[in-house]
Amino acid sequence: MTDAVTATAGSALTGGPGGRAPLVVAHRGNSAVAPQNTLAAFEAAWRAGAASIEIDIQLTADGHVVVIHDDTVDATTDGQGTVAELPLDAVRALDAGSWFAAAYAGQRVPTFTEVLDLLVRRPGIDLLLELKGAWTTDQVRPVTEAIRAARLADRVVAQSFWPESVAALAEADPALRRGLLVFQVPEDPEDLVRLCTDLGVVTCNPYGPLLLEHPGLVDRLHAAGLQVMVWTLNEPEHWAAATALGVDAVITDRPDRLTGWLAARVA
Description:
The protein is of the alpha/beta class.
């Protein structure tokens, strides 16, 4: 996002439908102060007052669900290799914290079960769950069943960039709330609305610069009954612009700062 979209912010104090302030979603946890997609980052997001944490899940070679963003473990652990080609034991043996800071040495790549356990212990925070890549219904079903078993379905929205993964979620658990992540808007934005309708999602979550490229996008999605969670905005001028446009949530690497920024504006 640039100064052009910042200029649309005006003097609005709150955003979202009815003038509500947007919810704060911690991108991969409070990833500005702790290593992304680790239990330490998720705990830090809860302490920062975030409404939700956003995480990424992938399958290991032996079919276990782990929380990691990249297709490989290279960038955020002390190991190497593709997640889908490594068994769970190998992934769990890696150090997922030292790359960020020595204080986080020994942090592990979490399992999805560990994240659900954290949510049970921290009832004040929800989960925005991203499926990385294309998932089949059979692959998705253990994820949705684990959410149901933990009695957390009312606190989870599951999303993906891949429409086939969103459709698999719908088949595995039709009642679970779903979202579509968007990096580009079609030439006819109504095509995006139709896709969201076909997939039965409750939220359409665009990349931040799309708010500049398509200034009517938020209103169009709201008119279709969809929520809008914009990603990933880390600067106050971008928060101001998104808030003025009425987004329902801001996904950020700095949930502690955004929480304070929103509180100050309301005050």
